[in-house]
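Lecture notes, unit on binding sites. The following record was shown on slide 14. It pairs a sequence with nicotinamide-adenine-dinucleotide.
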Amino acid sequence: MILVTGAAGFVGYHTIRALIAQGETVVGVDNLNDYYDVSLKQTRLEDLKKLNGFTFYKADIAERNTIEKIFSAHPEIDRIIHLAAQAGVRYSLENPYVYGESNLTGHLVMLEAARALGSRCKHFVYASSSSVYGGNTKTPFSVKDEVNSPVSLYAATKRAGELMAQSYAHLYHIPATGLRFFTVYGPIGRPDMAYFSFTKNIVEGRPIKIFNHGKMRRDFTWIDDIVAGILAALETPPKPGDLHCIHDAPHRVFNLGNNQSESLLDFVETVEKALGKSAQKEMCEMMPGDVVETYADIDATYEVLGYRPRTPISVGIPKFVEWYKSYYGV
Ligand SMILES: NC(=O)c1ccc[n+]([C@@H]2O[C@H](COP(=O)([O-])OP(=O)(O)OC[C@H]3O[C@@H](n4cnc5c(N)ncnc54)[C@H](O)[C@@H]3O)[C@@H](O)[C@H]2O)c1
């Protein structure tokens, strides 16, 4: 049995559907916070609740007593996929303390839950982020690169999460894998992300903000490719000394990206084409906390997990737009 945190979130929802389709049983946890439109989280949850083998708890991962009770109620839990976090780079400038609560305290509570399982914990898989590469300028970003220059608190908490996992894997021999996601997009995704808000604004005839005057690049990863990477990681718990393990601990981190760095303006053009409508572009300065480029080196991910992303934005964006139009009745 697998415990998945962030179950009502974008990545959590798609991951749980794939796990259940494989015959797994899943306990989902989410606090359904209102960082973005809660009705999207509720829609995902209603869909998941129809599946056999899914149990849900509305709970905050930072509340350790509640989390302990959930684990006690399900002694069959032997793997954890920890995806709950306060996401978003820009929001971390306005609401720093939620990042501390969810991404540091909550992450610690989940590591402690894994520790309490002892040898019953077969694998602790958790979400990190491409944002840990921060101010790095060497591209593509490799897991071998140093990541000591976060440019936002969000990035700093995600890097801290990796270091906390390293210490727990070292001390308590918990097999752990961190996955650095690169801009994930897809159906029933996150409205705070550019691909979603661009689509919405273009549909509604409102301008879109193009930061750094369009001089930005992003590695966009289709949700199904991310889910395939999560499932491959889950099946491959590390042992100390395995390829890419960090020092003596059964812990490693991988990039999950598309290995394609797209220019922001080309990306906007792909959205325009899929919608059959031009965007009104408002050119803006770079936002504090943002990075100019992300680009995933996925050699290590391929080497160990056999991970191969299959979806270019020319295929993924039209699929997202199709979902958007049908969901919002456009
Ligand atoms: N989507 C991306 O492009 C992307 C990129 C890099 C990293 N990530 C990471 O991947 C993970 C999943 O992201 P997502 O895109 O699905 O985001 P999301 O916001 O859709 O999902 C996260 C879920 O966690 C829940 N949550 C947050 N804090 C919680 C808490 N304290 N207790 C319980 N539940 C809580 C939220 O309600 C939400 O449903 C996150 O860890 C995020 O940092 C995502």
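Take-home: The chain has a mean pLDDT of 97.
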